[in-house]
């Protein structure tokens, strides 16, 4: 998976250096961001923590530069996932909240909300989560594509 993702990133990079419109350039940057996020997940699964974090940061920066909230949200979700696996639950909750601020109404928002609940429960802050009615918000997101 790592090699295939890196190959696709190289192909997109070649396309970016060609003659393209501004819309095509932006779309290729978004694709680069998604592929970079995927690569970060693969690195993390392979135990390559530093490479995973570098890819996550790159995906976030690409998303920030092109104004892609969903991708920014997923980059924060990756950070939350890393924190969950490593037992850093306060960092997990912080990352989910930062992601929620960027994600807009997207699949990332649903996952971030669920991850916030998981992190809050792990640090014993169930009341904080339940008072916000996030579960109701998830249902709203699910019904409004």
Helix content: over 70%
Mean pLDDT, as a whole number?
90
Tell me the number of strands: 0
Give Rg in angstroms.
Answer: 16 Å
> What's the SSE pattern?
HHHHHHHH
Low-confidence runs (pLDDT<50, min 5 residues)? none
**Structural class given helices, strands, pairing?**
mainly alpha
Q: Termini, distance in Å? A: 30 Å
Q: Counting H and I runs of at least 4 residues, what is the number of helices?
A: 8
Shape type? flat
Biggest sheet details: none
Q: What portion of the residues fall into strands of 2 or more residues? A: under 5%
Structure description:
It is a single chain. The chain is mostly helical and 145 residues long. It contains 8 helices and no strands. It has helices at residues 2-16, 22-45, 49-66, 69-85, 89-103, 107-122, 126-130, 134-143. It is flat. The two termini are 30 Å apart.
């Amino acid at each position: 998976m790592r090699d295939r993702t890196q190959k696709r990133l190289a192909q997109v990079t070649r396309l970016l250096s060609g003659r393209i419109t501004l819309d095509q350039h932006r779309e290729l940057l978004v694709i680069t961001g998604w592929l970079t996020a995927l690569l970060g997940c693969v690195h993390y699964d392979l135990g390559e923590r530093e490479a995973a974090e570098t890819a996550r940061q790159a995906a976030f920066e690409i998303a920030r530069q092109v104004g892609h909230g969903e991708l920014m949200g997923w980059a924060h979700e990756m950070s939350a996932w890393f924190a969950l696996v490593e037992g850093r639950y306060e960092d997990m909750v912080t990352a989910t909240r930062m992601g929620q601020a960027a994600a807009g109404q997207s699949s990332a928002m649903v996952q971030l909300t669920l991850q916030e609940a998981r992190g809050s429960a792990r640090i014993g802050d169930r009341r904080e989560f339940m008072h916000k009615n996030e579960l109701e918000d998830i249902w709203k997101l699910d019904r409004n594509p």
